[in-house]
Design goal:
369 residues, N-acetyl_sugar_amidoTrfase, five-stranded parallel beta sheet, NAD/GMP_synthase, Rossmann fold, single chain, 5 strands, 16 helices
Length: 369
């Protein structure tokens, strides 16, 4: 990590605040080794018991990526009966579709696919591009999370299996984005820059009240399976190649052509944000890579010139931007969440309260044992 994060600080030894934050996060969330496996088995038993009279006992998101796919493998090995949920936002690659099909067929998992009307999704993405807010992926990330909550609620389930993983995702500067749970900021960008004749009725989203209700009233929990035991991405990839015929991507999030365009072209060239620095730093903090290896990885170009030209032309044309439109977008100064109506503080407070309550419940349980 470096000063492309304007909030970064370094201690007397030149170690950034991100490293110490990652150490705290990993220490709190990751349940390694045999004890983590035992805790995971106990959690799986609880999920199975609560869902024994239902067609499914949990839901899980699938994108065709390594993490979400391996969650499916783990779920079936734990004897769980997940319903797989996929958001089709119009940006899937053929490889991603093939990986999802292989995963679900080999593991005998049912799939629910929600297709967002392309005009509606494109209008939202265009609006955030025109707003100059950096985190365009929040449009997809919010829809996925809302869809998972909605699907779990529809089936009366309390557990959503998640592919998030503190060991590989512990570091991400706040200045590079904003909380994707907040639909208010996205809809504010649409109101200011979108087409008023285009609705959002097929776009899964949730208000802060919805978010609060899912967490505190319906008590729906996201379970990060990859935080239990000793998850290693390289080993997981080998297992999936053998068991389900998984086809790997050249880069992280290669399952979406848009994500590649966003992370490897748009963010670095417009804002100077190279998300590889966060991803690689997380691997360093969790002991899965050393700094020299990460620096060598950063020396590799994000794009070869021909692929970059093809992807930029394809994505901007699909989004409906002319060359002059796109030049203006790339030249517009960065915007910040505070420039738009948002619920960032409310959501942050809700997350903190949830953490305090969960910690109190854990202490109470230990006290009784």
């Amino acid at each position: 990590m470096d000063t492309t994060d304007p909030a970064i600080t370094f201690d007397a030894d030149g170690v950034s605040n991100h490293f110490w934050h990652a150490q705290e996060l990993i220490g709190r969330l990751v349940k390694p080794g045999a004890s983590g496996e035992v805790e995971l088995q106990q959690l799986a038993e609880q999920i199975r018991e609560e869902g024994k009279d239902k067609p499914y006992d949990c839901v899980m998101g699938v994108s065709g990526g390594v993490d979400s796919s391996y969650v499916g493998v783990m779920a079936r090995d734990l004897g769980l009966r997940p319903l797989a949920v996929h958001l089709d936002n119009g940006w899937n690659t053929d490889t991603a579709v093939s990986n999802i099909h292989s995963l679900l067929e080999k593991l005998d998992i049912d799939l629910y696919t929600h297709v967002v009307n392309w005009d509606q999704f494109r209008d939202l993405q265009r609006s955030v591009f025109l707003s100059s807010l950096p985190n365009i992926e929040a449009v997809t990330d919010h829809a996925i999370k809302a869809l998972l909550y909605q699907t779990a609620d529809r089936f009366g389930l309390r557990y959503v299996l998640s592919g998030s993983n503190a060991n590989t995702e512990a570091i991400l500067p706040e200045a590079w984005g904003y909380n994707a749970d907040d639909s208010r900021i996205l809809l504010a960008a649409k109101k200011r820059f979108g087409d008023p004749s285009i609705g959002i009725d097929t776009y899964p989203h949730m208000t802060f009240f919805d978010y609060f209700t899912y967490i505190y009233v319906k008590k729906i929990r996201f379970i990060p399976l990859l935080n239990y035991g000793d998850f290693n991405k390289a080993r997981a990839l080998d297992i999936m190649k053998q068991r389900i015929g998984y086809v790997p991507y050249a880069r992280k999030h290669g399952e979406s052509r848009f994500t590649r365009f966003f992370q490897e072209y748009y963010l670095p060239e417009k804002y100077g944000f190279d998300k590889r620095k966060a991803h690689l730093s997380s691997l360093i903090a969790s002991g899965q890579m050393n700094r020299e290896e990460a620096l060598a990885e950063l020396e590799k170009p994000l794009y070869d010139p021909i692929s970059k030209m093809i992807d930029v032309e394809y994505c901007t044309r699909k989004l409906g931007f002319s060359e002059s439109d796109w030049a203006e977008i790339m030249a517009t100064p960065i915007a910040y969440p505070e420039d738009f109506p948002n619920n960032q503080r409310l959501i942050g407070s809700a997350v903190k309260v949830k953490g305090v309550l969960r910690k109190a419940a854990a202490l109470t349980t230990r006290g009784k044992s």
